[in-house]
TrEMBL record:
Belongs to the OXA1/ALB3/YidC family. Type 1 subfamily. Its main location: membrane. Pfam families: 60KD_IMP (PF02096). It comes from the Bacteria. Residues 293-326, 339-423 are annotated as: Disordered. The keyword Transmembrane helix applies. Interacts with the Sec translocase complex via SecD. Specifically interacts with transmembrane segments of nascent integral membrane proteins during membrane integration. The chain crosses the membrane at residues 30-52, 96-119, 198-217, 242-267. GO terms for cellular component: plasma membrane. GO terms for biological process: protein insertion into membrane; protein transport. The gene is yidC. This is Membrane protein insertase YidC. Residues 33-280 form the Membrane insertase YidC/Oxa/ALB C-terminal domain. It is a multi-pass membrane protein.
Amino acid sequence: MLDFIYWPVSWIMRMWYKFFELVGLGSQSAITWVLSVVFLVFTLRVILYWPAVKQIRTTRQMQELQPQIKALQKKYKNDRQRMAVEMQKLQKEHGFNPLLGCLPMLAQAPVFIGLFHVLRSFNRTGGIGNVVNVCEDIPDPAQCASFNASLANYAFTPEDVNNFLHANIFGVPLSSYITQAEASFAGFFGFVDYPSRWQIAAVAVPLMVIAAIATHLNAKASVARQSPDAATQPQAKIMNKLAVYVFPLGVLVSGSFLPVAILIYWVSNNAWTVVQQHYVFKKITKEEEAKKERLEQVRADRAPKPGARPAQGKKGRAKGSAAVIDGTVVSDDDAGAAVGEAGSAEDDTTQSGTDAGGGVPQQAAKKKPGPGQKPNAQKGQQGKNRAGAQNRSGQGQKRHPQGQRPGGKGPQNKSGGGKKKRR
């Protein structure tokens, strides 16, 4: 049913097994088989490295979007459908894809299932989880073990199966587990002595404890890297507690049902996760710091010098130049518009003060009073200038008769002064 998973997993594991056998570690050595399991994990994690990095970036991006998400939730708290639409719009604008955060975990699950099945299939002599009990009609343990070793296990040949059954750690076969049924021990007849449960526990329990501690440390490190806003979310608090305390406890409980080789897989996988997270988070932190420094440098370069007026929009910048604004590389036009906005506003205000009298701003047209001249003299001079301009502009208008004022009825009597003399 799941052969499309079992065959690739067994093929990769057998490839590493043959490699370590070729370098002289021995075909029946437990070290050869342990390393083949470990490097199966490493192969998977190398394939999933870039998706894992994308997952970390997605998680950090989600934390940065928390204030906007809170605002949308508050705004559309009574309209779930509109909230979902706005959330999708926000995620699309920022290139956020929630599925990428689940990809590494989803990809590791089939490999874990496939490895569990392949390891259990090395011994098909009965017990919980075995595909078939090949010794159901063979009462003789020797014949049962011989028949079991003659069966291929997906990519592994019968010879490889025979070598795997010989491999053991301190007398404990790699496919054995603490709760293993006694009937399945017949598969090891003639290869190793029947191990007791205490022997199996002596090897399995330390691996279980190491795997649980590594799981706890990985979860704790992930929680510590969360932003304060994300960590205070009710759902985030629940998930953090589950990851830090419940999941490690689950490793201890389920470890008694897992083969020793699976526990080795678990330990090596957690070890890889510790190293990878430390490296990736350190790399991402350096990238973010460098981005902030570049942004600050761009703002400092485009800021007006002390005592200088900000440059207008696009003037004074090299053609085709670009800038980093808020972590994004933008073109010369966009950068000039963003950075020179304040300068453009001031230029527009100054330009509005320019009139047709020569294009000089009003502030520049004002002169200081000369030596010995009163400040009001400037206003008087300006008044004369305006009067002269009016006289010049008034040429060609209708002249009034001599001696007649504008609006008068006629010339005045100079001799009489318009008044009757008394006698």
